[in-house]
Amino acid sequence: MNTDYQAGRRHVLQGLIALALAGVSGLNWAASLPTAKVNTTKLAVTDSEVVVGQLHSATGTMAISETGSIQAEQLAIDQINAAGGVLGRKIRVIKEDGASDWPTFAEKAKKLLVNDHVATVFGCWTSASRKAVLPVFEKENGLLYYPTFYEGLEQSKNVIYTGQEATQQILWGLDWAAKEKKAKTFFLVGSDYIWPRTSHKIARKHIENVLKGKVVGEEYYPLGQTNFNSLINKIKVAKPDAVFAIIVGGSNVSFYKQLKAAGITGSKQFLLTTSVTEDELLGIGGENAQGFYSSVKYFQSIDNPNNKAFVAAFKAKYGDKAVIGDVTQAAYLGPWLWKAAVEKAGSFDVDKVVAASPGIEMANAPEGYVKIHANHHLWSKSKIGQIQADGQIKMVAESPKLNEPDPFPKGYQ
Amino acid sequence: MSFSDILNIGLMQGFAGLSLFAVLLLMGLGLAIIFGQMGVINMAHGEFMTIGAYTVYLFSWLADNRFPRFSQTYFLVAIVAAFVIAFAVGWLVEWALIRHLYKRPLDTLLATWGLSLGMQQVFRSTFGPKEVSPTLPDWLMGSWAPHEGLDIPINGLFVLALTLVITAALLLAMYKSRWGLRVRATVANRIMANASGIDTRKTDRLTFAIGCGVAGVAGAAFTTIGSTGPTSGSLYIVDSFLVVTFGGAAHLLGTVVSAFGIAQTQSISEFFLTGSMAKVLTLLLIVFFLMIRPQGLFASKVRR
Question: Which of A6, A246, A398, B96 could tie A190 with a disulfide, CB 3.0–4.6 Å?
Fold first, then answer.
């Protein structure tokens, strides 16, 4: 196509100019790394700028959850730009709205990769949206940083998963429940779709085979279910040591409000969840879930200097009342991990960035040290927190070692 | 498990059914008036409920930040305000949109669906995309435990009581008041009603607004058991239509009986099957019933 030819010629020209400039200044990154050299695949990279895409739902049902990710990624990009950009180039973001609609996600992903030639994309939230864009990223050889904790069973050359996959979130949490809370009998509840079902499959195997405990109930409710009184009565009949709950969306709010109303509170019943972060507590109300436990990898209240700086910067940008949940923090890691990989590779080319990614570390992540595994997920420490009345979560335990990501766990499928 | 345990669970499960009945009835009542009596398919019904929910949130915010001494009582005022606001918006919508479409029922479906999307975006732009949680007064929280092992949810009792009051008020209004008479006359035969001096336009507008107002009250009450967000209303819309369609259009009592039947079927089957299977079973039963009797439980005996 004509435009390709022109673009190619433009890159060569820019490269020449950059080389000439290098002769003059010889100091800045961009000049020492001419565009022609760091970008051999016609990405939207110039001497002063690199274009990236952001693909989340700013409208529709999922806007509730994805807004935090959009904000965190923008914050990271602003900070990177303020510190000089990536390979001396400022990041410019093209924002696209997936509108909570999976075909729209695929369409916008194609637009970002084919029309805009973005160097990378930060985006998606639900597994459904990721599954919709995955073929596009693989065909066009794009790069996606995906922030949400999810069910695993996936690994792609073209995706870096910055959230936890299911085993990281579940196994250590259950070990902790068995050891610290002496839990022997478990009642599993979830919303009826792939993430809770896969998670509970893993949980059941772990409880029965490793912990030698017993699953006394496993229940799924349709997404959007607003009435949980029958479920609550079943829990009362089963009298489990632990309730393990993975309920999402509006149902989450109904579940905890009705638990509290039925007299099942944190002081009477041990409950562990992997689907409640500070974001969800805004809707649930801390007082309705007070005393229950959450197993994720980040809490806004984590007490370390990196996190304090992150929370302060986030609040400075988005207001004092801004709330940061696990996924928001994972989204914040995306641009930083990409920057580190690009600079290690010395190139924006997707193949080179992907090749450079395993082993990339981030010592100053708000959640603590993380590292990219060869399977494109992150080594991270699992954490247990107790939900407080004010909607914050207080960390009570942290895994001593980094948990290895294992998206295809043997013996758990 | 001892006998008293079984008794307790039985009682609590019975109450769970009753409480689901109250929820279904309350969400269906407003729609029963609008869809059942006027034949308008109001897809924005859920959003009128959301108006009520956000009204509670606003009052809760005011009580928290400005008038702490009302923190235990604001909720009752908020329910009245939810009715008034939803009523006013309903009045406006009827004037601007619905009245032009009475002769094109399928177009009202499309128009009100568009309205629902628009209203969701207004909520999102005004209150933000994240869910909010009104601080509920202490007396609405927790459970009433007459003896050990038996917990009756107070918010469930509250919704039940409110539903009974609203239903009684609506039945009285429909069958004892001048407005009710005019509505029934208009439903039975619009042209005849017009000819006998009933202002059917005014009746329509008032009826639509009252239906929306009742939806607002339902939304306000549901803040005690459910979520408050821009799209919360969409959680209720399917069940609302289910209750009204199953009940039939002739009589508000149809809605009451229908809500009771659906609630008990679902609640009992939920206890013995899984949640998703219970839903499947309930929907199948309704579908079969409507195949045999498409007009629903209570059909009107009007010659068409």
Answer: A246
pLDDT tens for each residue of A97-120? 998 889 999 999 999 999 999 999
A260 touches chain B (CB under 8 A): yes
The whole-model pTM stands at: 0.85
Task: Find residues 165-194 of chain B whose CB sits inside 8 Å of chain A.
Answer: none
Residues 6+ positions from B181 with CB-CB distance below 8 Å: none
ipTM: 0.84
Domain with B114, as residue range(s), is: 15-234
Q: What is the CATH number of the domain that holds A370?
A: 3.40.50.2300
Two structure tokens written together for A258: 């009705």
Q: Can you spell out the DSSP letters for A325-350?
A: -HHHHHHHHHHHHHHHHHHHHTS--H
Residue B10 within a domain: no
Q: Are residues A80 and A152 in the same domain?
A: yes
| pLDDT tens per residue, range B25-67 | 998 999 888 887 778 888 999 999 999 999 999 999 999 888 8
Contact in structure between A248 and A222 (CB atoms under 8 Å): no
Domain count within chain B: 1
- pLDDT tens, residue by residue, B270-300: 888 888 888 899 999 999 999 998 888 887 6
Contact A216, A185 (CB under 8 A): yes
Residues 88-147 of B with CB under 8 A from A: 121, 124, 128-136, 141-143, 145
pLDDT of residue A30: 53
